Amino acid sequence: xxxxxxxxxxxxxxxxxxxxxxxxxxxxxxxxxxxxxxxxxxxxxxxxxxxxxxxxxxxxxxxxxxxxxxxxxxxxxxxxxxxxxxxxxxxxxxxxxxxxxxxxxxxxxxxxxxxxxxxxxxxxxxxxxxxxxxxxxxxxxxxxxxxxxxxxxxxxxxxxxxxxxxxxxxxxxxxxxxxxxxxxxxxxxxxxxxxxxxxxxxxxxxxxxxxxxxxxxxxxxxxxxxxxxxxxxxxxxxxxxxxxxxxxxxxx
Length: 252
Hints:
It contains 1 helix and 23 strands. By secondary structure, it is mainly beta. A hairpin with a 4-residue loop joins β2 (17-18) and β3. 2% of the residues lie in helices and 48% in strands. Strands 1, 5, 7, 8, 10, 12, 13, 16 and 23 form a 9-stranded mixed sheet that branches. The chain is globular.
């Protein structure tokens, strides 16, 4: 499946189930093989996976909101994993043991774009070897509570990433932005007050001015362009996962 533009709004209801004789899989977008998104505005609110591919997932541009109330937000079952090279992505899958980005033991490759994913401790961990853009992995004690705004700021308090949390925040946030420069020191702040900026589903695509807030970690420095910063105790229930749950039969 290839998506090259337009506006797609999908809402699904019902409980996902699968047994020997019948099944119900209320997913948003499903590709039996690879899925490529090159452009468009996609809004998915689902009870099963918001996006699922039997193969690999490639997001090159566009604006994608993928929310699942009962399963993964974005789930790839291909050996090439999930590849985000551009665009804006907001992925929310906070029902244990599901997650925002599920690619089993395969790569979560982040090479561009502005993205945020809220999920659980059973998450697919980004590796520096698969990324060429800095990535943060934070537990919820670092990014704050519902309906507040967190930000990553430089030494002059300029925001390079900002996100206003929804009513349910999960336990893990994965974030990335091209605004996070190499060789620069940053601080994570929660509970900031934003002014201005442009948002897509609470994720700032143009940075606001921020004030106030509480520093939630010691400063970190992006030593390489593929820096993966982890401020989390996630993985205590089985170790930091390279993948989420096993895929169900049929690529679901």
